[in-house]
Amino acid sequence: MGRFARLLVVVLAGCWLLARPAVGQEVVPNAQPTAITPLYVPADTVLGVAVRARRVGVSTYVQQSNTYGLLALGSRQQLRYRFLSEWVYDTRGRPPFVREDYHGDLLHTLRLNRAWHLGQQVRYDENRANRIRTATWLGRVGWQNRLRPTNAADTVSSVQALLLGGLAHDMRNGIQDLGLSYGGALIAVFRPLPGLPDPVSLRLSGTRSHLGPRIWERAVADTWYERRLDENATGSLRLGYRHNRTEDYLLAPDGQAGNVQRIQSDTAAAQLNWAYQLGSQAAFRSDNTLLLPTRSFRYRRVLASADTMQNVGYQQYELDTRQELTLTSAKLQARALFGYHERARTYALNNNRNLSPTRLRQATEREQIRDIVEQTTQWQGELTWLPTPKQAIGIGTTAQLLRVNTPSSANNQDRDEASNQLRLSLTSRWHPTFRTSLAMWGEYRQFVFIKAEQSAENYTDRLLHWEPGFTWAPGNFSWRAAYHLWVSYQVRDRASEALRNRASRVLELEQHLSYQFTPNWLATADYQRRENRIGLLRWPQFRESPLDTTIVHDLSAGIRRGWNGRRGQSSLRAGYRFLEQRTHNRAALIPDEAGPTALIYLRAFTRQHGPELAYERRAGALALSGSIWLQSLQNRYRYRPGQGTYVGAGYTVEELRRRSDRLLPYFELLLEWQVRRGKRL
């Protein structure tokens, strides 16, 4: 097949994708009909395939696939392609597909000479669950060259330019639109002055699509400069601007497009970083960012009978700064960090409905109730000391204050959130095969509303953590254990809210054992336990009454056999897994006849257990893994009567006697395969 015949085949394929008839699908909500971002495919990959399928619930399955590659169509042409699909399937759903997305991308380029190239790109996105689809075909002309080709000392300065033009098709809400799509991009790297050794990077890009009465736009401007000030200091500056405009239909009650909603976002950003090395043992770093985003929601009528909707928008600024100082020596390492973050947002209206001054003021005041200012200040310090080569002692502290201020008197969400934490840790190596770790820390939190209307929500939270662990690995045997216990006491400030005081205790226990019989035989056993107990706290007496308890046991054991060969490695694992969850709480027993519900103490048991089998294969560019768990699912209830009545979740005697036993095979399959250039298929 000649060069022009191959080009004709690619053009026909792109036109077929663009003109494919719609069957009720529309475009992915975040998808843009114009894309100028390069389609990234590894340069040596002719064909790459990645497929993952698994069961994630009783009736839910997930599938993800990715096919990509690069084909050389002669010495000057190449074709990059990528096809993606993602499914979420629920056998009990109507329709069964919760999510069914497809994406296709083709990029064909023809290099005319060292500076110029031609090409075309076809992009297709489909979301069948939301009945959305978009397709775009774009022709492209590109040019690149050095900025100072005659200057032998300047080999960095260069420029790349790209022009795009084509058609875009969009379908959503049963409405199809076809229109022009165009854009461009400019990327340059240059030295602003001959005496500056470090170059400046500049990137400009923009796209625009006309889809009937709707317009989609996207623009990006970004520049970055980094300079080494001296032997110890480095600074960088980055400036950016983002513009995004998306328009969509708002349907009238009769199903027709009544209004077009425009969501426009504009963000200006600046980032300044500075790093300084203070001798050989100290370093300072400063990171500072300023964001100025704005967003507007504007509406225009498509039907004369449609209602006129109110335009609204907001302005915001975000300031973030982090100052960090690090000190390092042979036995001591210290770190101090200060951070500050501020975010302020103000809302405003546009009088597109021609409201009277009084009604406009009232509408503006309703929107300005959402005005907010958030200020977060954080101090953090860490100190690590090595008294001996086998021991490390660490201490850390964190203090944070969040202040939320709402200028409107109608908003009572003004509050302060303060947190103070102190952490101690000890790590010891008693023997080359035995290590221990111990950490404990406490935290004190305060949550205070400023206005009296919300004072009932004020509380103080006290947390204590205890976390020991060890690792023992003598020879072929390995035993790793971790234990984490933390308690929380949440006390309301007002005595009248004492019934909302809560005590929470959480226990996490992990045990991992393994034994290597031979290089190819390995036995493993894992056990995890988690308990979460919540109770009513009587703080003055420091006593609690249990309200809800959840206990989870997860035990698995197995043996693994491995094979190593000239063409790759394989392994097969067989084992058994037992998972149990117990919940203890209060519930209501619904009588057979009319009458009050009685209090019962309910225990629910959910057991999942069965054999496991897993296989894994790695051979060059091929990676294959699969596992299956033949799970037996059992549900049981037990209860004992209490005294009095209860209002809450209720069960009948028949429901509590009911038992369920099901066999649910859980599986997971993963395949990755790459055919690289120079290799046989």
Structure classification = mainly beta
Sheet with the most strands, sense and barrel status: 28 strands, antiparallel, barrel
Poorly predicted runs: 1-37
Shape: globular
Mean pLDDT: 88
Straight-line distance between termini = 20 Å
Number of strands: 29
Task: Give helix % range.
Answer: under 10%
Seen as an oligomer or otherwise, the chain set is: single chain
| β-sheet strand percentage | over 45%
Describe this entry's structure for a reader.
- With 681 residues, the chain is mainly β.
- It is 5% helix and 70% strand.
- It is built from three helices and 29 strands.
- The protein has a 28-stranded antiparallel beta barrel.
- It is globular and about 85 Å long.
In short:
Helices cover 5% and strands 70% of the residues. The chain contains three helices and 29 strands.
Break the fold down into its secondary structure elements and pairings:
Layout: H1 3-18, E1 45-55, E2 60-72, E3 77-90, E4 97-111, E5 116-127, E6 132-146, E7 158-172, E8 175-190, E9 200-211, E10 214-228, E11 233-251, E12 257-278, E13 282-301, E14 311-328, E15 332-350, H2 357-368, E16 372-388, E17 391-405, E18 415-431, E19 434-449, E20 459-472, E21 477-492, E22 502-518, E23 521-538, E24 543-565, E25 568-589, E26 598-619, E27 622-645, E28 650-651, H3 653-657, E29 660-676
Parallel strand pairs: 25-28
Antiparallel strand pairs: 1-2, 1-29, 2-3, 3-4, 4-5, 5-6, 6-7, 7-8, 8-9, 9-10, 10-11, 11-12, 12-13, 13-14, 14-15, 15-16, 16-17, 17-18, 18-19, 19-20, 20-21, 21-22, 22-23, 23-24, 24-25, 25-26, 26-27, 27-29
